[in-house]
Design a protein that fits this description.
2 copies of one chain form a homodimer.
Chain A: E1 3-10, H1 12-16, H2 18-28, E2 34-39, H3 43-51, E3 58-59, E4 62-63, H4 67-91, E5 96-99, E6 107-111, E7 123-128, H5 130-138, E8 142-146, E9 148-150, E10 156-158, H6 161-172, E11 176-183, E12 190-191, E13 194-195, E14 198-200, H7 201-209, H8 217-229, E15 234-238, E16 249-253
Parallel strand pairs in A: 1-2, 1-11, 2-8, 5-8, 11-15, 14-16
Antiparallel strand pairs in A: 3-4, 6-7, 9-10, 12-13, 15-16
Helix pairs in contact in A: 3-4, 6-8
Chain lengths: 254, 254
């Protein structure tokens, strides 16, 4: 029997809100199974760029990461947010370790090729170091992974945190029974303002066709189905209460 | 026989200079023994504070760490500098892991008591997690530790990197034969502009009495002698060439 592993990805709105992150972490530490937390930085980066007079560049909601932006991304993700989370988790006796892609080659990526748009230092994931992550989990440590990767040629890269959560869950599903939770600002996938309890792959295809699921929700849900198709046991999308209350989320099924 | 462990602390001037850090890291990766790198952030923090219109506060060269300064310290140390170093080390096939005090409780500290001066969120070291550091070293991984600590009550703290290097070397000297290197902008301890090959504890007492060793060099050398008195085998102070060329440094002896 494989051990259970709970993977949780938290989004910007939780990170930016002191009281929400506190509530979330207090329920996260109560998970008795092995667990991994994954985070980006959301609007904190945009707000900080403005503070230092660097104009944030986004195309269709996706960040263009130039050199200055990459520095700020590294500062906010691996520095400010990651260390605040680790410090809070230790307070609650959850022994945690902050990781970024370059740390022990946790996430190897390739700089995105320039086609129509030059995304700058954006990385597409090539390889997850599952051996190292398993070593850490087996030591009883909770990895807290920020969405930075590297190309092993000396270049740090900015990478989508949803994608990291999906890829890590898939790789570790060879060793564990993985439950993946995407935690964002809504209590699940809403259709006509109605929270859906379950969305199947079949439902999803229909909803896409009818233009009911659009924009940023598409890659998020694609990551969910990719995880399910590649070995992950269960996938949920919900709000900061996702761990305690599965009523506050949508379950994705094949 | 205990294994050899090389501990190197690098100072601000190396970190701030792209070509110096590259040269330093290229010689650091050639160390075949187990090794640990320790860094702070030096002037990068001061420069950044000015950029976001926060006045850096220093008393006798020591930083007063208020809330905003602590955020910048976390961003620069654990984010920008640590991740750049790790990314470069991985390029040279040196498998490294970035750590700060809260990560796996590597360094537990206590907020400095307010006496004459309120240093804000400055931490004095209480405990090093040598068991975890040994586990990481035994996995063939090089820890790269930035000078942040925590109090295990949820508070991140800013801590002197020289002091961290000394305390970690002392703790690990129970498990390893430790050689500690303090790497800064000069090729050793200078007296009347003459680089000293050796300074003994006896010499040091005389030099202090005569006011020849003053200011910032005093706590640095105190850290060296404290290490030697508490189990560390060898201690050197020198410039970025300290690893290759022991002529470019001063050896401290009891």
């Amino acid at each position: 029997m494989k051990d259970k592993l709970v993977v949780v990805k938290i989004g910007g709105n939780i990170i930016e809100n002191e009281s929400l992150i506190e509530k979330f972490l207090m329920s996260f530490v109560k998970i008795k199974d092995k667990k991994i937390l994954i985070h980006g930085g959301g609007k904190t980066v945009t707000n900080f760029l403005k503070k230092i007079n660097v104009e944030p560049k986004l195309v269709n909601g996706r960040r263009i990461t130039d050199n200055k932006t990459l520095d700020v991304v590294a500062m906010i993700y691996a520095g400010l947010i990651n260390k605040k989370i680790i410090t809070k988790l230790q307070k609650y006796n959850c022994n945690s370790l902050g990781l970024s892609g370059p740390d022990c080659n946790t996430i190897l990526a390739k700089k995105r090729e320039v086609k129509k748009i030059d995304y700058g230092f954006a990385g597409d994931i090539e390889k997850i170091n599952k051996k190292f992550l398993k070593q850490i989990l087996d030591l009883g440590i909770c990895p807290v992974i920020c969405s930075l990767t590297h190309d092993r040629k000396g270049q740090l890269l900015n990478t989508n945190a949803d994608n990291i959560a999906s890829k890590i869950s898939i790789e570790l599903s060879k060793k564990f029974n993985v439950v993946l939770n995407y935690c964002f600002d809504k209590s699940g996938v809403l259709i006509n303002n109605q929270k859906q309890d379950i969305i199947s792959a079949k439902d999803y295809k229909k909803l896409i066709k009818k233009n009911i699921i659009v924009d940023g929700m598409i890659p998020k849900i694609e990551n969910c189905f990719s995880a399910l198709k590649n070995g992950v046991n269960e996938v949920y999308i919900g709000n900061h209460q996702i761990i305690n209350n599965k009523k506050n989320c949508t379950k994705l099924t094949l």
